[in-house]
Amino acid sequence: MVTPEKFQKCVLCPDNAYCYGGNFITPLAGFYRKDNESIDVTQCIAAKACLGTNDLPITNLTSDEQINGVCAEGNYGKLCFYCEKNYGKSDEGEFCQTCNEINTLVYGRIVLIAILLICYILLNSKFSEVDKKNNNYENSSVFLKIVINHSQHISILVSYLDYTLGGIEQFFNLSSYCSLSNDDVLNNDCLINGIYYNPEFLFVVKIITNNLLPVIFTLLSFIFWVVFSLKKHHYKSDDLFGIFKSKSTFFLVLSIFIFYPLMTTSCLNLLDCIHLNSTESVKYLKESPNIQCWDTEHLDFIIFICVPGIIFWGFAFPLFLFYVLSKNTNTLKSMAQQVSLKKEDDSLSHNGVSLKIQIEKKSTDTLENAANENAFKCQPFSKYSSKKSTSKQITETQRLSIIKRTKTFSFFYKGFSDKYYYWECMIFFRKFILIFFSTLNETDLDELKRLFLIGFLSVFYFITLSARPYKHRISNFMEMFSLLTCIFTVIVSVLTTSGISDSAKSAYFVLCIIMNTIFYLLAVSFISYDAYKSSHNLIKSKIKTIATKKMNQLEKQSTIHKNPQLENNNAFNIK
């Protein structure tokens, strides 16, 4: 039933639209109108994709171009979201451009980031092989891990910011690149569309690709490690399988840490639905606006992609990591006991060597008699040493087995106090909560959601302040400063959506950028200083080792020169 025109009520023309009278409404540039019955317009995801109707001649007000607005070349569909063939997006939130224009940028970015990631994975693998006492770069590795965690947190919280001011968006996009949370950093629309062109389901291909990234980078890192490592080290054939298994597992868990926000976000984005008409209850999927939310097709995606993603990344993986680290806690204590036993054995061996040196320092005239006299003295030690060597060989085997198991997951507990070995699991849980709420696009709950996040992050801040989980004082400071920056970012998102002026928004955004910049500058200074200090200590240690070795050689030559019969006696013993 249609209401007669004389009973119809006029309403104000919506913002960002032009009204010709009656129900003839056309959107302005950057906005989209769903259909002829809509009384409002929706902001396009990529503002440059929607051109409006300003340049169109007014010939037919009922045409699709006048109702929906004109899409830029290569863009089509609702919100001008989809790309035609041979077109693609260079970045998240960008409009479609010809593949020839963006391929150089996209492929160059993929290659550069891939190289940096492989180097980062291999460096952490190298650090995990070094004993704790000799690992001069452990603090730098921990600092860098805190920086990556901070970048991932900020890239998630950026979705709460209503930044519409020029220049500010670029700063937060850079944070998304650094954290690899951007969906298009390692994905190429042109490449995917060239293999399988179906724009409406392109997001499904991206979800699958994102979740396979840890496996892909595990294989790439493993190949590079095999090429560069096996040439320098000659491993026994019996140990190769265990070494390969340990390395591949280490590469995999480290890749999961790097891509965790991207994989989790891509799965949970299936819950991100938006209105195209505020007067309708129907919503559409933000990742593909032609798909209506909660219909049969969307429910299939929820059941087979979203729910498994929530279960696995939100609960299963952090709990599995906690289980593994808890299981290795006793073995880590066993390693400490093994070190103390080794010190006792070294002390006993040192006593035996001292006794041997005392024998060698006897005069040449009484050398043979002195050796016979001390033979009885050395016998109890030799007997004890033979028994001890058997037990030491067993404990050494156990120690090596413990080290092999624990080093696989060393990236997650290094830098933390023994009491807080599980802290990285809590950080994974924190990321999941932030991602989960960032994908709930309900304007009615936005304010409540932001207040919850402020409280949630504040609780984590005070827990960190009380626990101080890191061994290094600077690491605890960086972690707490990162949380304060995240809390301030959410507060800025609340203030900038409260209807304040553009100048006040600019001031808050600048403060937010300043806090993030201070964090990154402090991190760079700490990492640089620690790297310099570690390199200096490493050089001193190597010089000391070389000098000690040279002094031992000179002392040995001097002893042989003073006691020529000792050289003959040593030659006889060797025979």
Summary, kept brief:
This protein has 575 residues and is mostly helical.
Q: Can you give keywords for this protein?
A:
single chain, 575 residues, mainly alpha, 2 domains, two-stranded antiparallel sheet, 15 helices, 5% strand, disordered C terminus
On the 0 to 100 scale, the average pLDDT is: 78
Can you write the helix and strand succession as a string? EEEEEHEEEEEHHHHHHEEHHHHHHHH
Spatially, the strands of the biggest sheet line up as 1-2
Number of helices, counting only DSSP H or I runs of 4 residues or more: 15
N-to-C CA distance: 114 Å
Share in β-strands: 5-15%
What fraction, in percent, of the residue positions are helical? 55-70%
Structural class assignment: mainly alpha
Strand element count = 12
Domains, number: 2
Task: Round the Cα radius of gyration to an integer and report it.
Answer: 33 Å
**Stretches with pLDDT under 50, minimum 5 residues:** 353-394, 570-575
Shape summary = elongated
- Give a quick account of the main beta sheet: strands, pairing sense, barrel closure: 2 strands, antiparallel
Structure description:
With 575 residues, this protein is mostly helical. The chain has helices at 64-68, 99-129, 138-157, 168-179, 189-195, 202-229, 240-268, 296-360, 367-407, 410-413, 423-438, 446-467, 473-496, 502-562, 564-574, and strands at 17-21, 24-27, 31-32, 42-43, 50-52, 70-71, 75-76, 82-83, 87-88, 97-98, 273-274, 284-285. The protein has two domains: 5-80, no CATH class; 103-327 and 422-546, no CATH class.
